[in-house]
Structures are given as structure tokens and as C-alpha cells.
Amino acid sequence: MIDLPRRQLVFSEIIRPSLYAGIEYEGMHARRWYPMGEGRRAVVLDPAVQFGSPIVAHAGIPTDIIHAAYLAEGRDRSAVARIFKIEPRDVDAAVKFESKLAA
Q1: What is the full DSSP assignment across 53-103?
Q2: What is d(CA 12, CA 25) in angstroms, rounded to the nearest whole number?
Q3: 66-75 confidence digits (pLDDT tens)
Q4: 42: closest CA among 67, 19, 60?
Q5: 51: three-class secondary structure by DSSP
Q6: SS3 for 3-43, per residue?
Q7: pLDDT the model gives residue 16
Q8: Which of 59, 84, 92, 102 gives the lowest tally of CB atoms within 10 Å of its CB?
Q9: H or E, element range at 44
Q10: What are phi and psi of 57, to 5 degrees?
């Protein structure tokens, strides 16, 4: 990308931060990815857990399973939280993540 008024390349200023946002490294290798961004670590993709499918980070439950339960329980986040013994905010994060994937 080029900043036309200054006639300078701005790739690193605009694109690069989003390429690396939420990725956790061990040395030179990416270890896990928090796709909802920094500060939102409820959902993680970690190749060492559930074959890298998106999960609720501290519970290890796939987000698609939580989303399916949420729909089956009539969108009752409290019921889903009780079933999986997680916080309602974790249900919200999983549902938000899966909704973004569907869009």
C-alpha cells in the first residue's frame, strides 16, 4: 500500500499489525492463536489441543459444540454454561466466534 500524499509504502504500518495480532510465539515458531485479538483470550487455536480447532481456552471445549448447544437450548447462555461448567462469558465468546465464521 502507498500513502499517496507522502509517496511512501505503508504496508508495515497498516497491514503487518493485523497479520500478527493474537499470535503467541515460542522462539521463532507460532505456538497458538487467539483469533479474537489481544485482550480477548477466551477462544484459542492451538495445534496441541483438539488438533488446532477453535476451543474455549481454559476449558478445552470446541466452540462449535458450545454454539450448537446454545442453539439447542433456545439461546439460553446460562443453561449452556451450566451444562459445560463454564462461565456465561465463555458461551458468549464461543457464539460470537462461530457467528463471525458463519458470516
Answers
A1: --EETTTTEEHHHHHHHHHHTTS-HHHHHHHHT--HHHHHHHHHHHHHHH-
A2: 19
A3: 999 999 999 9
A4: 60
A5: helix
A6: ECCCCEECHHHHCHHHHHCCEEEECCEEEEECCCCCCCCCE
A7: 58
A8: 102
A9: strand 43-44
A10: -50, -55
**Nearest in space to 69 (alpha carbons), one of 57, 53, 58, 85:** 85
Question: 12 pLDDT exceeds 80?
Answer: no
Q: Which grid coordinates are listed for 26?
A: 515460542
In order of 9, 61, 74, the CA distances from 64 in angstroms are 40, 9, 16
Please say whether the dihedral angle defined by the alpha carbons of residues 50, 56, 62 and 64, taken in this order, is positive or negative.
negative
Q: How far apart are CA 13 and CA 53, in angstroms?
A: 30
- What is the rounded distance in angstroms from the CA atom of residue 97 to the CA atom of residue 57? 13
Task: Write down the domain spans for the chain.
Answer: 2-102
Q: Can you read off the three cell numbers belonging to residue 91?
A: 458461551
The pTM (predicted TM-score) of the whole model is 0.76
Residue 29 · residue 44 · CB < 8 Å: no
**Residue 32, C-alpha cell as written in the block:** 497458538
Are 41 and 64 in contact, with CB atoms under 8 Å apart?
Answer: no
